[in-house]
Amino acid sequence: MESAGGMEPAGAAAASASASKKAKEGSKSRSRRRWRKGKAKASRLIHSMDLRTMTQSLVTLAEDNMAFFSSQGPGETAQRLSSVFAGVREQALGLEPALVCLLSVAHLFDLDAETPANGFRSLVHTARCCLAHLLHKSRYVASNRRSIFFRTSHNLAELEAYLAALTQLRALTYYAQRLLATNQPGRLFFEGDEGLTADFLREYVTLHKGCFYGRCLGFQFTPAIRPFLQTISIGLVSFGEHYKRNETGLGVTASSLFTSGRFAIDPELRGAEFERVIQNLDVHFWKAFWNITEIEVLSSLANMASATVKVSRLLSLPPKAFEMPLIADPTLTVTISPPLAHTGPGPVLVRLISYDLREGQDSEELSSLVKAEGQRSLELWPRPHQVPRSRALVIHFHGGGFVAQTSKSHEPYLKSWAQELGAPIVSIDYSLAPEAPFPRALEECFFAYCWAIKNCALLGSTGERICLAGDSAGGNLCFTVSLRAAAYGIRVPDGIMAAYPATMLQSAASPSRLLSLMDPLLPLSVLSKCVSAYAGAETEDHSNSDQKALGMMGLVRRDTALLLRDLRLGASSWLNSFLELSGRKSQKTSEPMAEPMRRSVSEAALAQPEGPLGTDSLKNLTLKDLSLRGSSETSGTPEMSLSAETLGPSTHSDVNFLLRPEDAPEEAVAGNELSTKDRGPGVQATFPTGFHPRRSSQAATQMPLYSSPIVKNPFMSPLLAPDSMLKGLPPVHIVVSTRQGRGTP
């Protein structure tokens, strides 16, 4: 009993300690909830402020904090805090009038009253997000600067990072003002002196970008996406370090890349390394990085989490010509030749995905086209019951900057689409640049599109409704394939769903292209490498490109399906509503052509013996002019797609997507130094006296400004197509992101 009685105080003490611990944990939990609730309330309050009120509040808080830290003695930390708040005050006061100016005219650039969005609004919104964060942080500092728990170093580093971002945003705002002053009224793309565009691009090269990829990464986006962006940035810079040292290969595991913990714990170092990667590494690096979801382990995991389909087969379409009926007169046909550009005739790979096994999908004719994929070569589940053919068919072109990815990367969300739409999906594995530049991908996609229409019964569809879908580069191909179908006079698709399509590959300054300075996924310098490769300007030695591509084995990146989850839900909803419409829209009757078109329009527009077509001349030409121009001398020859011989040797000096005027003297183009003198008085006049944006410490990226006829071709930049061609497009549904899509204003 004594023993039992002696244990009672110990048990009571333990119970008391446990209760005390739970009370403390509960108090901490309630404190964290109150802090998060207060932060959310403050954020809502800040974003509901008008710009002038926000600026005045920030200036008042900055002056108060500046005075406090100035009185704390000569310590280095206090001086830095005082200096940073002085900088915040200066930049906020300078930025506010420029933003007010942009807001006063932003509505003039809206698509319509129901779509209040354009690049100027996006720039103002981004600047407001930065001001809002600084306002919230300034309030926090003012409330907690006397506390013994105040993390001085952390708050100082964050304030300095956002001050750098605010300074760069102020520079972009001045550039946007200059566009307003020099551009034609109501135009987003600058279409005046191309020398000014060149100056903007040179300025872009020299501007400091690392501040947007460190502590400030994704500040303009919702908080939910920031951890994803941080994961991507850590994986990118870690892989970039390995890639630069030639340490990539099969021996590099996914986890080993993330042992570079210094990039995770040091945002400033991560931002500087991110800037180095995007400015200096070649297109093969991005090919390897974006192909992360191609590796077997990650693709298998992604497919395990995706919908289970009955049919997922990789088909190899033979390079054999066939006939297609003309819309104007179905008794007449046009020959669809296999792809020939650059590498000659070759098969086109497509992936057939269907949630149900439909009639025709298990036919011997289709089975003869199946291409082996190792262990995943056949995912056709034998079933005794077949579902009737679907009325609809979706033809998909994947994204990847024209240089990376395949249908395998996009397979998880395509399986979900197949389930939700109840329609088979054909995804095209077109050849990639730089090994297969323009127009090879277009030729392959057009050939596969025509084959799918002609053989829709084998694919499990009646072909009553055919819709094209694609993201980024794939969105570009959706438009160009449709334009080419209209040029040939054959059936065009019944609808297009393009997600952030690249519609304008010609260099032209615009507000959203200014915002590419902080784009965490596709900055302008990276886009330039991809488009230059697609245009045929890539001149690097490709002998070890396959070995370089093995670096993708060492990357960790979330599957594309996770990134496009919201896109999948929205896009599939639109596709479903579109495909369910009864009947097929009537085709407009066009004038019968004198003879079937035997050459592609991309050929006709590119094969210009007198020189490249300018933008203005393209806009003035009709579809017939484009399709028949230059064909009189070759009308008696067999149909021939554009090849390397037609284009002539593609060198770094004559093909690049960053343009100068065609008649610019060679010595003027060659002088591509980045000194203040060479930028000219026009760019210097953009900034007010005393303002100096921060400059990059990295070596200048290779963004030469040479002339290229290819990027002005409407089958590469469909936005430049004349209205007579654009009128032939079917209904289009465009999905954009938080700001204007890449390649659009």
UniProtKB/TrEMBL annotation:
GO terms for molecular function: monoacylglycerol lipase activity; sterol ester esterase activity; triacylglycerol lipase activity. Residues 629-650 have a biased composition (Polar residues). The active site is at residue 472. One of its GO terms (cellular component) is caveola. InterPro entries: AB_hydrolase_3, AB_hydrolase_fold, HSL_N, Lipase_GDXG_HIS_AS, Lipase_GDXG_put_SER_AS. Its main location: membrane. It catalyses: Hydrolyzes glycerol monoesters of long-chain fatty acids; 1,2-di-(9Z-octadecenoyl)-glycerol + (9Z)-octadecenoate + H(+) = 1,2,3-tri-(9Z-octadecenoyl)-glycerol + H2O; 1-(9Z-octadecenoyl)-glycerol + H2O = glycerol + (9Z)-octadecenoate + H(+); 1,2,3-tri-(9Z-octadecenoyl)-glycerol + H2O = di-(9Z)-octadecenoylglycerol + (9Z)-octadecenoate + H(+). The keyword Kinase does not apply. One of its GO terms (biological process) is triglyceride catabolic process. Keywords: Cell membrane, Cholesterol metabolism, Cytoplasm, Hydrolase, Lipid degradation, Lipid droplet, Lipid metabolism, Membrane, Phosphoprotein, Steroid metabolism, Sterol metabolism. Pathway: Lipid metabolism; Glycerolipid metabolism; triacylglycerol degradation. The keyword Cell membrane applies. Its EC number is 3.1.1.23, 3.1.1.79. Monomer and homodimer. Interacts with CAVIN1 in the adipocyte cytoplasm. Interacts with PLIN5. PANTHER family: HORMONE-SENSITIVE LIPASE, TRIACYLGLYCEROL LIPASE. This is Hormone-sensitive lipase. It comes from Carlito syrichta (Philippine tarsier). The lineage of its organism: Eukaryota, Metazoa, Chordata, Craniata, Vertebrata.
